[in-house]
Amino acid sequence: MRKETDLGGVKAIAKTLLMTAVNQTPYSPMLVQHPFTSSGLVALPTDRSDNFKPIDITLNEENLKRWQESVGQIIDETENPYHIYMLLNPPYALTFLKLASPYLSRKDFAEILASAWINCEAPHNDPDLSKADLLFMFKSADPKALMEDEEYEQLRELEDTLTVYRGVTSYNADNVKALSWTLNKETAKWFAHRFDGDGTVYEAQIDKKHIFAIFNGRNESEVVLDPQYLTDITEDQDMTSDFSLSM
What we know:
By secondary structure, the chain is of the alpha+beta class. The chain is built from 9 helices and 10 strands. It has helices spanning 7-18, 61-77, 81-86, 93-100, 106-119, 131-140, 143-146, 149-157, 185-193, and strands spanning 23-24, 32-33, 41-45, 52-56, 161-168, 180-182, 200-207, 211-215, 222-225, 231-235. A 3-stranded antiparallel beta sheet has the order 5-7-10. It has a 3-stranded antiparallel beta sheet with strand order 6-9-8. Strands 1-2 form a two-stranded antiparallel sheet. Helix 1 (7-18) runs antiparallel to helix 2 (61-77).
């Protein structure tokens, strides 16, 4: 990590991702896969600054190039690495962060990591990021920049050894020892049942020193931790599908 962010380096990474291929899906042009868009139908500014014209970037190379030039100009004019991150399609944000990390300060890195982690639906399932990659990211981040002040103080005030919970479905049942757990059993139950399935809630113990962050932004009491230090992992015996949770 750098003391000061090299904005030029961050922009170079972003523009490299911008030039990657647009992967079409059975629902294209409505839905595509690309680091900077989830749709092949995009809006480009016209000569009038308040007007935009829709185009299909899957239709031909000319449209694609025009869109890439437009987004590239926005990247060039951006003065903050966080604003560059905000241009990205959320599923690609952590990959961008991994590639841009050599050019980011520890503070900027942590702020982007926190947002990318919270806004990515399934960070554990990113094929471009291993569990070791994610652990390295959180170990490298500045804790004070990673969390809100209230979250940072909450983590400091927790007991030295904690009980944590994780709810899994058949979809992720083989990934119990993941980074994401919660302090709230009801939240774990919600995750175990969120697709109307018969999931499982696990309970475990961990020392506070192995917790990287607490995130309360989605009312999930999420704790991000190093799973190799989890102990006494057991299935909760009081599972019930009849519960209510206000998220």
